[in-house]
Amino acid sequence: MSDNQPSRSNSPPGAVAAGLSPWQDAWRRLCRNRLALFGGITLLALVLLCYVLGPLFAPSWREQSLSLGSTPPSAAHWLGTDPLGRDLLARLLYGGRISLLVGFVASFVALVIGVTYGAVAGWRGGRTDTLMMRAADILNALPFTIIVILLLVFLKVPMQHFDAWLTGLPGFGSWQGAGKVLVMFAAIGAVEWLTMARIVRGHVMAIKKMEYIEAARALGYGPGRILFRHVLPNALGPIVVYATLTVPAVMMLEAFLSFLGLGVDAPMSSWGTLIKDGAEHMEECWWLLVFPGGIFSLTLFSLNFFGDGLRDALDVRAAKD
Amino acid sequence: MVWCPSGHFKTHRLQPSEWPDKRATKTVPQSFARERAALAVPAFGCLRFAMFSRAFSVLFTAALLTFTGCGKKDASATFPTPAGTAAAPRPQILRLGNGAEPKGIDPQDISGVTEGKIVMALFEGLLTPDPHDLHPLPGVAEAWEISPDGLTYTFHLRANAKWADGEPVTAQDFVESYRRMLSPKFASEYAYLLYNFVVGAKDYYDGRLADFSKVGFAAPDARTLRVTLLNSTPYLLNIIACHQAWDVVPLKVIERFGPPDSKNGAWTKPGNIVGNGPFILKEWLPKQKITVVRNPLYWDAANVKLDAIEFHAIDDATAEEQAFRTGRLDATDTMPLSKIDTYRRDHADTFRIEPYLGIYFYRCNVTKPPLTDKRVRRALALAIDRESIVKNITKGEQLPAYAVSYPGTAGYTPIARLSGDLAEAKRLLAEAGYPEGKGCPPIELLYNTSEAHKAIAEAIQQMWREKLGVEVRLTNQEWAAYQDTQHTHNYQMMRAGWIADYEDPHVFLEIWSSDNGNNDTLWVNADYDRLLQSALAAKTQDERYGIYQKMDAILVDECPVIPIYYYTHVHAISPKVKGWFPTRLDLHPYKYVWLEP
């Protein structure tokens, strides 16, 4: 991804004269990276498809036709139907809503917690750092499954109240099970931020010794401003890459939890559960595995290419030489 | 189900020993092999994608495990083939898929079908079932007499009946075994198969009677056993022949490993256990297989044809089918739903659909609203399209169930029938205070994790939502947790099955009495309990069946359980297996079974 360096040296000298902001600069570099652009556009298309077109055009994701059973792709059902006669396309788009939601929201939760925590620990250093990082180590040592099971057990009743309240609201009738998805956000987010915190802490510790940070200090800036205006933007590359890699990991965790009966419950679907069901039928009904597997892979590819492109685009050092 | 429910799911890496062997790989259809390769290259090709590959390795592990039968290696695959050693006959080793890992093999402490099949090889009771129709044949007892009033059974034990350690099996052994079975401290789940019939047994079981000699079991001499009954029970011989509750256990051996009324099971470990059946336990590899080998001291050893039987613990139907297809099993216990059509079409020589006396139903916890109201339970029962379920989902020629008793059990067919159309169901629901399902709290339906149960639950969930407006939440638990939930009644509605222990309509009706350990619905009906007692005391079969009709009518009216379909046994068996006949209880006395070379 970084081997289109030569094209950068060809950029017109006028651009420098015009004085591009770092963000404009990054945007230009991102646009020049074809793969990253492709990844970004695909992601955007998938999100649009799942959240906008899915609810508008696809048939119901839970309407069954038992007598129809599993049929291969046809004009009526573009991606075929599952053994209960449900339209696979509709279930795929519906599953995408849950998988993408879990992937992005839980990653975002992890991102916010991890970056803040790591930055504070790295910036303060000393005893604060030791305390904070040991606390993170302890959390890391707890088995993930047990945390999730405990959370789900303790939050079962509030979850059901939340469900009842939500499904009672106009327009939210089909949101049954949202409470459980929320708990999953919390549980996955609570585990995934740990690595992020470590990465950020390491970078912050390196960056805070730089001359420009000293200069900022000498100018009398407060720690908040230095941290968020000067330190973190310089650590953005690894953060972005790790965040984009967290999304697929989280989506897999969601599939894992659904398998254990802790994730989304039938008849709701997520890409993970669809792939699992498809694998059970792969010898008779290839479409049940190929389409969910294909769209899941496509999402992961897009995320990785996009993340790589973002890193290249945001890496100030790589750009300036 | 592909996702092998082993504990190391999350961090599992494929070990070399778990790679699919060549034989298994050969059977991978081309289309999937290509799909797998397409996914594998980017995932493992580049270091950048380390996270990505971790994510995918879970999927691959799951997918690959399908081809290796949950990673289990099968030692028997290395036995010499007839082609290689033409002179030596191939050892007669029957390899059976046997469902989940057995809970134990103490004949008096088991209640599952899985365990029962192993116990049948290791122990023998007074009578044994006929391999064709399960009618009672001589076992340890070579002859028996029934008094004219039908209340006293005298069994004459054969002289050459021996324990596997060479000791003779005596009538006293049987009396001691029944004392253990009925011990209040031991609390066997199946004690009712004795105390419902035998004089004084219920009192002893309840602790009201301390002196076991007053219970109706007597051993006048070492080879005579006399059983005194409360009522004439014409089907008792069937129970004795078919059910392990009446088997004999080696008290001397049990006492060597602990008090006789403890359930610790140390005595059942290989090397400790002493049985009296046609086979002896050789090896128990937990979560893999149990191997039993021929017992040379068995009284009928000359007629036992098999050298060994392996009971493989494979609770994943897909993995089991795979093991069968690659020749690692001679018969499967079940068949994945998705494979039924393929087998029916392409493998008719191995595919079997056999009658199976059992019912698939939903159990209601009648103490949890809205299921406290029988009108709600009835409405739910009426709104299930059973024909569609058996035709499109289970596909194994199952019968839709509109009553609890299996039709045609020993000549009894229930007349009572869940009848009423959708309008009736809606009216009942409205009467209960939930017109069109409005205000009805959502029902939580629990099933044990399995593809088939999930499919049925999803279909019924949709039927209730569409037809009645009743919302259902589905939850699933793995087998052990699910059983705990059932026994602690910590559920609202759950899927369940009941397989007959012997062929008499009594078996489907006795479990719904309020004191029965297998009821688990908390449903109590005084009329029903009274009817059960009068059925036990009935003098003639007509009178008895008449009472059963009333009991079935109560069940259909009250719906503590919602019948869905009557089972059939759908499985695959190699044509090499001979002497294996379709019996209605899925019992196949192993001494008649052999393998065609």
Summarize the structure.
The complex is a heterodimer of chains A (321) and B (597). Chain A is mainly α.
Relevant terms:
heterodimer; A: 321 residues; mainly alpha; globular; B: 597 residues; alpha+beta; D-Maltodextrin-Binding Protein, domain 2; Dipeptide-binding Protein, domain 3; 2 domains; six-stranded mixed beta sheet; four-stranded mixed beta sheet; 19 helices
For the residues shown, what is the average pLDDT of chain A?
80
Tell me the span between the first and last alpha carbons of chain A.
Answer: 17 Å
Q: Label the overall shape of chain B.
A: globular
User: Mean of the pLDDT scores of chain B?
Assistant: 83
The residue fraction in helices of chain A comes out at: over 70%
Adjacency order of strands in the biggest sheet of chain B: 12-16-11-15-13-14
CATH fold name of the largest domain in chain B: D-Maltodextrin-Binding Protein, domain 2
Most strands sheet of chain B:
6 strands, mixed
List the uncertain runs of chain B: 1-86
* Strand residue content of chain B: 15-25%
User: How far apart are the termini of chain B?
Assistant: 33 Å
How would you classify the helix and strand content of chain B by structural class? alpha+beta
DSSP E strands of chain A, number: 0
**What is the CATH class of the largest domain in chain B?**
Alpha Beta
Count of strand segments of chain B: 18
Number of helices of chain A: 15
- Sheet of most strands of chain A: none
* Percent of residues in beta strands of chain A: under 5%
**SSE pattern of chain A:** HHHHHHHHHHHHHHH
Tally of individual domains of chain B: 2
